[in-house]
Amino acid sequence: MPILVVGAGGLGSELLKNLICSGFHNITVIDMDTVDLSNLNRQFLFSPSSIGMAKAVAAADRVQSRLGGVCTRLTVTPIVGRLQDQPVDFFANFRLILAGLDNIEARRWLNATLLSLVETETDSDGSEVIVDPDQIIPLIDGGTEGMKGHARLILPRITGCFDCALSLFPPPTVFQECTIVNTPRTAAHCVAFAQAKFSREAEDRLGPLDKDVVEHMEWIVRVANEHASNFGLASVLPITMSVAKGIVGNIIPAIASTNAVIAAIQAAEAVKIATEVLPNLDNYLMYNGGEGVYTSVFEFGRDPACVACGTPSVRLRAPSTETVAEFIERLGDHPQYQLKAPAIK
Fold first, then answer.
1. Which of 21, 71, 164, 178 is catalytic?
2. Is 306 a catalytic residue?
3. What are the domain boundaries of the chain?
4. pTM of the entire structure?
5. With respect to CATH, is domain 3-169+254-298 assigned 3.30.1960.10?
6. Which end of the chain has the least Cβ crowding within 10 Å, N or C?
7. Per-residue pLDDT tens for 24-62?
8. Name one Pfam family in it (predicted).
């Protein structure tokens, strides 16, 4: 069974190890990032010699060398690049996809892509009928935030899709420590990079980072803007003092044990799908290790008004006093839609 693992970071490292030890031997792993020093405390497939290497390549090499002798048929294929740069047909080559992504946009894109692969027809009673069940590629999504995490099973066109539950993911007010990436995409990435660099290069001279000390934050803002400029992130420039303060004060640590728990649940679901020995997760699991160990499982059904898998059109009301610009801005902020670049044609 060919499997795609999306992400080779905290969750991806655990997933690769778990899947191979569970008997899966045809695995492709994709990640656009490179290994950073800050990754080594929890992403165990990497070592100091991996710093600067593409995560997908370093992870594939590591598991191939350590576990290839046990699983002689093992083939781990690394792909370095953005998920969104892959053609739709690429995803049709896999029978199962496990995701360990750290952002909503990539999850939504993957969700929409898998939905587009499933051809449907409208029955005489108006219900949706799947033409070919073999086009359904299960997605086992996982995510962590400090001591909390989730795992969910998405069967495109059958269960609720990722966008059906989009309201559960409001705009972030806290930022994972794993936002320290060598290929930044947001202001949070750049500020997290600057914060990590501060602890290595400026803490001995200036003291522990304090967001209320002007000198500290000026250092953070300068380095964050330099990092953004180096990668051509004009959309996030300039990173102001207030933006940097909001991020620095809300970066929470990435916990290795949380990654291990969520990845173990994802791998167990993969085994159940491959072997059909037990019923699958139905279909959303929440984990909280902050006070003891707590899990809750519930079914997240399809939303008929979902913009991804539901009705092709949605009726919205706008007050007569609202301008077109205000309406477009509201679409971007709406918790149910969270459109990245809404526009009117």
1. 178
2. no
3. 3-169+254-298, 175-249, 315-345
4. 0.78
5. no
6. C
7. 999 999 999 999 888 888 899 999 999 999 999 999 999
8. ThiF
pLDDT at 76 over 80: yes
Which CATH architecture best describes the domain 175-249? Orthogonal Bundle (1.10)
Here the tokens at position 248 are: 């620095």
Q: Is the dihedral of CA 87, 160, 27, 94 positive or negative?
A: negative
